[in-house]
Amino acid sequence: MAQQTSRSQGPVLTRQQVRACDQVAIDRFGFTGLVLMENAGSAAARHILSALEPVADRPVCIVTGAGNNAGDGFVVARHLANVDIPVHVLACAVPRDPGSDAAANLAIIQKMALPVEFLHQLPPSQLQTKIEQTARNACLVVDALLGTGTSGPPRQPIRSAIEAINALDTPVVALDIPSGLDCDTGEPLELAVKAARTITFAALKKGFLNPRSQAYTGPVTLASIGIKTQLLSAVTDSP
Fold first, then answer.
1. What residues contact 54, with CB distance under 8 A and at least 6 apart?
2. C-alpha–C-alpha distance, residues 88 and 51, integer Å
3. Are 172 and 195 in contact (CB under 8 A)?
4. How far apart are alpha carbons 182 and 14 in whole angstroms?
5. I need a surface site. Which of 54, 105, 108, 212 has the fewest CB within 10 A?
6. Are 204 and 12 in contact (CB under 8 A)?
7. CA of 67: how far to CAs of 11, 37, 74, 129, 149, in Å?
8. What is residue 83's predicted lDDT score, i.e. its pLDDT?
9. CA 192 to centroid of chain Cα atoms
10. In Å, what is the CA distance from 230 to each residue of 30, 31, 189?
11. Where are the domains of the chain?
């Protein structure tokens, strides 16, 4: 996988700045949310693929939530499947808005007949058992539960999913930020995924400057969303 990104390299964004940059990309540069999600997920898939060659015969387990982070996970699943990497998606929540970009990408992988199991209605113990059983046969687990917008302690069923992931021996890659880690402080919101590596989108997050965040992020790899973050930041800061 790509080398660790220096935590002092390039722009560093707060939660609010992440939202502002996404909005600038859409309002000022004409991106759509679907394009940004596609760019992020496909970039993450490329980084993941660079680490998978020795174990490509074993599935990648992608654990998803309800928001845009889940949508990134669905895109990753599609791109891995397109190069014959077996994938298994465990949906611990469903997209809140049926018209959302995440819902659109979920519908795509369902139409592709990729394996998707919905766990959100299971009791916590059964949800955890399913994650443990699926991950046991996987070469990698992708954390796509919660993103940078998370500001409070994880609630069920996401909380149980994080606990299950942290009990695994299988290596975990977090998309954008480990689920449950505060974007601005780099501290867990009561609990957070402890990833072996984090693939973060567009720019480093402010919380990554906190040395204690490294126990959750592991090495951080920077992935493009299709436009320079410096350009988005400059427009965001302009009058």
1. none
2. 18
3. yes
4. 10
5. 54
6. yes
7. 24, 11, 11, 23, 9
8. 93
9. 13
10. 17, 16, 29
11. 12-230
* The 3-state secondary structure of 13-44, one letter per residue: ECHHHHHHHHHHHHHCCCCCHHHHHHHHHHHH
43 vs 2: CA distance, rounded Å: 11
Cα(177)–Cα(193) distance, integer angstroms:
9
Contact predicate 78/109, CB 8 Å: yes
Report the C-alpha gap between 228 and 164 in whole angstroms.
36
DSSP 95-158: -SSTTSHHHHHHHHHHHTT--EEE-TTS-HHHHHHHHHHHHHT-SEEEEES--TT--SPPPTTH
pLDDT along the chain (239 residues), means of 10: 53 93 93 97 95 73 97 98 95 93 98 98 97 95 97 96 97 97 98 98 97 98 91 61
Residue 18 phi, psi (nearest 5):
-60, -45
Domain 12-230: which CATH number of 3.40.50.10260, 2.60.40.1090, 3.30.230.10, 2.160.10.10: 3.40.50.10260
**Pair of tokens at residue 196:** 């072996």
Residue 78 near residue 112, CB atoms below 8 Å: yes
The residues pairing with 221 across neighbouring beta strands, listed in sequence order, are: 199
